[in-house]
Every structure is written in structure tokens, then in C-alpha cells.
Specification:
Rossmann fold, 7-stranded mixed beta sheet, 6-stranded antiparallel beta sheet
Length: 724
Amino acid sequence: MTSVAACPACVALPEPSGARPEAKGDLRDYHFSLPSLHCASCISTVERGLVGMPGLHAARVNLSLKRLTVRAPEAAGVEAQILDRLKTLGHPGEVLDAATLGRTQSDPVGRALMLRLGIAGFAAMNVMLLSVGVWAGAEGATRDLLHWVSAMIALPAALYAAQPFFGNACRALRVGRMVMDTPISVAILLALGVSLYEVTQSGHHAYFDAALSLTFFLLLGRVLDHRSRAAARSAATELAALEVPRVERLGAHGPKVVPLQTVHAGDRILVRPGMRIPVDGIISQGQTEVDRSLLTGETSPVPAAPGAQVHAGEVNLTGRLEIQVTAAGEDTQLRQIAEMVRAAEAAKNAYVSLADRAAQVYAPVVHLLAAAAGLGWYWASGDVRLAINIATATLIITCPCALGLAVPSVMISASGALFRRGVLLKDGTALERMARVDTVVLDKTGTLTTGDLQLIGPIDPQALALAGALGAASAHPLAAALAKAAGGQVPEVTDIKEIPGFGVEGIYQGQRLRLGRGTWLGAPEASETTTWLQHGDAAPIPFCFTDQPRQGLQAMLDGLRARGCRIILLSGDTEAPVARLAEAFGIAQARAALTPQEKQAHITDLTAAGHTVLMIGDGMNDTGALAAASVSISPASGMDVTRNAADILLMTPDLAVVPEILRIARSARSRMLENFALAAGYNAVAIPLAVAGFATPLAAALAMSTSSICVSLNALRVRLRGRG
């Protein structure tokens, strides 16, 4: 008996009535991206809506990834049928390549970090329990036994768990650099070494619990950082997953479903209506309209006929196409965009954070001071034990905990303030880069506008009803918008058929009724996004559409201008709607009909000229620009690939929050610099005391904790100001 695998948010689904046809062929998983999912109700709608499809064995929705996995027989046309059903359910999807996705799911680094964290925590708890006996007053052989047992637990546990810090410090030292992990590694090793020395000398104090606790909390921060980076997977990987994994190749015996990897230039393939085009090529047979919005941002579909060039990633809307392949796999425009994104991501990841820049200066000074103090006291007193204790106290009192907290504490406060405003911070250095923004580049469709076409102008109700009757039979976006606007009250139109590349026609009251392009119906060119209706020989009636501006658009533009930012509009849409929007909202610099490569090149030129660029976009055609910008923002309604390329996500539909992000970012950078100043001031007072021998290791630890608390309290000012 087949069933649907539902998430906990969904109620149990009843078995469908009637016997389901037995599935033929081997079962396999089909993966789809569903960008419109946002709640448990969406999950239920999709999974319940798919339950009645013949041969379907299971359907599972992952809300966090906005992804659907369907288990069904392997056969031609299955993906198209599922896509059609999803569209009728109100959640249109995109096919994802399961092989590409599978390569991204393994995370050995994350598993290793979790294992080290667990070992460090378990060992720290046990050593602390043993330390209680020492703190309670154990003396002599009892104290030594507790110390030796602690050593046997702590030494292997700490040396294994702290490997990420040791490895990073060693790699930095090999190239002659100091990073934050360098003094951390020395502090852990020195604490273990001093403790072991004290145990061998029957000393009263050992610091095994401190070394393990420091390792545990540092690992916890490392795990959280890794999880956040893993959640923001490479946008280039998401682009690769958008490739159609299987195609219908035409041969002597008709179409045959084959893996995309086996298709080469010169082959002929079949692309059915509603399917994504898997290759770059030239149409050899068939007419259609192509949706290029993912690649160019164009709101209106483009007619395509024999001889027209098409690219991987575009959607065939209305007609059956036979395509002569000119490029497949690595050579397609879609893959070239992915490579551009990958290169831009690598350049952005080379950004050096404030903490690392400070560590390059701070860490060498700390080590030199500790070494000088130890050697000086040994030369003056000849007491190795005293010299080691003073060197340890110097290293502890100057331990980079305050410096290490200077940035993370501010980040936590700032990200909390932003989250309350509906903003999700994905990258740890995004706020540092955001604080320096002087130029803001904006996409249009789906970013400044909603992307939902709305009818404008005077509308004849009877004409709208006729247009809605024809529009319901087409997958064209304008036809679908007319069908939605007309509602359910439409007249009966017979003999409806779609003319690929032109429109839809049928018979109403004995006369031909047509809905489609103006050139097909002899109508004049219109500056608006327009489709036309013609009944019989009457003059065509226009239906004009416009894209509505997003909530808070004017407030966002005013706020950014008030903070000294230059605003540029870069869109792949046609000239007329871009110019109209730019004029309405006072955007002086606006360019239209740009390819993804041109968008990315424009941002690269701005960055090379010394500008810090913020890019805001939501479509696949914006991915390269988002990755190339100094910092980037994407609405949560954007595609998976776009959300992964962006540094910041807008969970709220209100664009007025963008200037607030900039304000909080600049405030956060100020708090970071103040924290560095606090840490430097503390060290200026504490280091002479430690070097002079006036600070015991215990006093040094207390002073270090005090400096860390001061840094954390200063970081809270970001949150308090954020509320204002």
C-alpha cells in the first residue's frame, strides 16, 4: 500500500479511495525546489495535493530547505507531471539534480568538531568533579592522586579536542603569520604543561580544568560558526543543482531519456512545454515562448521560433521544441554563471576580519612579553618554577579572550537586534563590510517590486471574463494573471487551443476568440507589459499590467540617501518598466536589459574603483552580482540559490528595514573598535603588573575575566541602541 511521508506539522493523511495503479519501472527520488513554501499549511497543501497522482509512492517536504522529494517510477514525463501538479497547487517548482545535491550533504568537518566538543565537555566535567576534592582541602597523597587522575583524563582529551586550534596556528606560523588561534594554542599547551609540572612536584595547584573548559567553550563557538556557514551553502552549488538531470534525446527510434552527462554538442533533444531547457542550443523545430526571468530578470516571456538560440535554465512555456545542442554540461551559460559566482565567493571569503587583523599585531607581542618575563625572572632568580609561573601569569593575563570576544559579543548583540526586525545575518563579517557601504545597487523585479503582475487601467468586465476563459488554458504568466483576475465567473469557450509563441484561441458565440501577442492580432506596440484580446473581426482590446512596488521602497531609498549612499538600479528587465520605476522613485542611475555577466562586471568595476558596494537582489540572474558585491542582501522570498549567495536575508517584506541594517552595522563596527581599545587599555595596566611578578596565575585569571565582562557589557550597547 502506498502512502505519503509527511512531516510532524502535517496531520495523518487518509488512504486515497480506490485502488492505485501499480507502478511500472524502477523507483527513484525526484528532487524539486519550492521557493514559495513558508509554513506548515504549505507543506500539507503540497503533500496532500500529490497523494492522488498515479504511481507516486512517497512525497516529503523539507520546509527549511524549501525542497520536495518525490519517490516515483523512473519514466519519461514524470518530472513534467509533478511540475504541472505543483503549479496547480499554487507552489511552482524547479527540478534539482539529486547527484549534485548529494555531494553537498556530507559534512565530515562538522562531525569532527561535534566529536571534539563532546570529548572536551565530558572530560571537563569529570576533571571539575575531581577538583572539588582539592578545593575542599584534600592534602598530601589524596591531593596528588586526584591531580594524577585529572592529568590522565585531561592530557589526551585536551590534546585531541584542541586540534582545530593547533592546526590553524601551525598553518599560520608556516607562512609567517599570527592568528587568534596562535595565543589560544599556546595558552592551552602552557596550562597543561604547567599543571603537569606542578603534579610531578606535588604542587598545590593544577589547571587541567581551566585548560579543558577553555577548549570546550572555544570549540562551542567554532561549532556554531561552522553550522551557520554550512547552512549558507555555496550559491554555485545551488546553481549546478538547477540543471535538469535527465533529458529526452532524439534518435532513430524516437526520444529516449538519458542522463544529461551523456548529451554532447550536435545532439538533438526534445523539450516539452513547461520543462526547463537543459542545454544551450538552437531551435530546429517548434515555436514557443521562453521564460528567461531566472537568467535575465525579464518579466515578459520572449517568443522563440526555429533558428532562435536558447540557454540552459530557461523555461519552455507553451510549445514542443526540438533543439540542436550547441553546448552542454560545463560549457553552458548556466554553468559559466556558476563559475563566476564561485570565483566571486572565493574573493569575498578572502576578507580579513577586524579580529584577525588585530591578532596579527597582538599575538606576537603577547608571546614576546611572556617569553621575556620568564627568561628575565629565571636570569634574575635562577628559580625555574618561579619563572614559569610568572610567564604563565603574563600569558594568562594577556590571554586574547577579551580580544576574541570583542567581535563575537558585538555580533551576537547586533544579530539579535536585527532578528527582532526580521533580518537574518548569515555571515560573521557581513556587518563589518556593511558598515563601510557607500554604494547600493538594486535589482528591480522581485526586489523593488513584488513580481506579481497586476492589471491596470479601465477594464471591461465582459472582456476580462472572455480573456480569463482563454487564460485558464495557458501556462503563460500574463494569461494566468488574467484567469486569476477574472475569477470563476467566465463564459464557456469551446475548441480552445494554444498557438505556441503567439497565444491562445477558441470559439465563442460562433466567432473566433484570440488572446495573445499584439503582433499576432495586428495591434500596435505598447510601452506597458500588455496582452491583447480579439473577438471576431473587432479591434483588439489591450490588457496592461504593472509590477507593484514593495512595501517600504520609498522609505528605504530616503534612508539610504540620508546615510550618504549612492543608489544604482541594474535590471535585466526591458527599458520601459525600468525607466518608469526609476522616474517614479527618483533613482538617477538606472540601466536595463542587462545580462547576469554585465551586472557582475558593473559591480566589479565599482569595487575596483574603491567603492564598498551593497547589492540587493532576489533572482538567479542576480547571483553573480550578489557574490561579487562587498556585502549582499536577498529577500527570503528569493530563490534558494540567491539566498545562499547573500550575506543577509530579509525575512520581512518591508524594505524600510534596510537603512536600519546599515545604521546597526555602523554602530556595531564602532563597538568593535571600542572593545579593542578596552582590551588594549586593560593590557597596558595588567601586563606591567604580571611581568613585575605582582600577579599570581589566579589573580591573572580574575583580571582576564573582568576584562572579558567589560567587553561583553560594551557590546550590549548595540542592542540597546537598536531598540531606540
